[in-house]
Write a structure and sequence with these properties.
Layout lengths: L2 E3 L10 E6 L2 E6 L5 E3 L14 H5 L10
Amino acid sequence: MVRWKLKNCPRCGGDMFVSSDLYGWYQQCLQCSYRQDLKSTSKLKDQPLRNRKELVGTRGNRTKKG
């Protein structure tokens, strides 16, 4: 399961995703690839979960001028 932390990258202000591999949990920026290892995942439970529909649905909401 991947969790998203929107606008949370300390380098570029981009969107971070939290995931795990053989070495443990980490968060990585989608825009600049900044990566940070996480010591604990207990704080993730306090944050709201962003689902795929919320991320994808923002692009088509532009109003047409005419």
